[in-house]
């Protein structure tokens, strides 16, 4: 019943079976089956059709309110039992590698995790250049979009981040709101990502440029890349949420038309560290769809 209630709450908050299934990373038929279990248990329908989505029935509204209370009690129980097993006097620190790109999405989740697990301190390390620190055991966990994975590491999908073209405010394309990838072949400015990253991004999007953009200025630091764009040294392909979180008025965001390039961010750990309670707790939180997507 616990899993069914999670699915039920997610549909309530998404307003659609399709969106809820996508967020929960399960098929829509599997999600529908979970709701049928609930309706069979309670002997009543909990949803009714509303346009392209669904709305709660009167019985569904009662169940939703009670289900939320149950989930909150479960969260409180997890926190209290964890504090019992891991007193503050024996506080544990997890070192987490993260790129500035991912801070807008992940930081609110880190805060929620810490509130539920106050005995675990979080130490953040900038890892824009891959996950070498994880392989060398300088950090415990990494969030990365690296495509290669070494055999001693284990990775799971967390989310995808849409990329966009970032140009300076008076760039010739600054008044545009959308652009196709192939138009980058004709741009006069430079794209500030390394050739390998650009090529990988295009391949991931199922697109290959006949004439890749020139990259006279390069950096592995997202902050430096953004600063170069602001100084009119060229343009860049960066995550949309990263730019929006900075409220930067000196640059313009131009979204890509289909195909839309996206970074796949993964949670990565050493395989031989699964048994550590703090890491298990952390992974369980971030891989529980109802938690990871409850922003």
TrEMBL record:
Gene3D superfamilies: Periplasmic binding protein-like II, Winged helix-like DNA-binding domain superfamily/Winged helix DNA-binding domain. The keyword DNA-binding applies. It comes from the Bacteria. Residues 1-57 form the HTH lysR-type domain. Pfam families: HTH_1, LysR_substrate. Keywords: DNA-binding, Transcription, Transcription regulation. Belongs to the LysR transcriptional regulatory family. This is LysR family transcriptional regulator. It comes from Paenibacillus alvei.
């Amino acid at each position: 019943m616990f899993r069914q209630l999670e699915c039920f709450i997610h549909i309530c908050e998404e307003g659609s079976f399709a969106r809820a299934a996508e967020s929960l990373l399960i098929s829509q038929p599997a999600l529908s089956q979970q709701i049928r279990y609930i309706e069979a248990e309670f002997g009543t329908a909990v949803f009714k059709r509303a346009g392209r989505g669904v709305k709660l029935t009167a019985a569904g509204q009662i169940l939703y309110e009670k289900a939320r209370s149950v989930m909150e009690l479960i969260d409180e129980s997890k926190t209290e039992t964890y504090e019992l097993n891991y007193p503050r006097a024996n506080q544990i620190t997890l070192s987490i590698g993260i790129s500035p790109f991912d801070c807008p999405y992940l930081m609110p989740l880190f805060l929620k995790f810490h509130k539920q697990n106050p005995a675990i301190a979080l130490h953040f390390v900038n890892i824009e250049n891959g996950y070498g620190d994880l392989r060398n055991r300088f950090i415990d966990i990494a969030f990365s979009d690296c495509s290669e994975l070494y055999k001693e590491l284990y990775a799971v999908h967390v989310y995808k981040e849409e990329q966009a073209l970032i140009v300076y405010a008076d760039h010739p394309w600054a008044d545009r709101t959308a652009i196709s990838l192939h138009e980058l072949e004709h741009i006069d400015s430079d794209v500030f990502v390394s050739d390998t990253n650009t090529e990988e991004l295009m391949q991931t999007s199922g697109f290959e440029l006949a004439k890749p953009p020139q990259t006279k200025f390069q950096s592995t630091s997202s902050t430096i890349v953004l600063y170069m764009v602001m100084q009119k040294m060229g343009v860049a392909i960066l995550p949309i949420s990263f730019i929006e979180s900075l409220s930067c008025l000196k640059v313009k965001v131009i979204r890509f038309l289909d195909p839309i390039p996206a970074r796949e961010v993964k949670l990565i750990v050493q395989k031989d560290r699964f048994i550590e309670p703090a890491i298990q707790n952390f992974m369980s939180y971030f891989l529980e769809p109802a938690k990871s997507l409850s922003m």
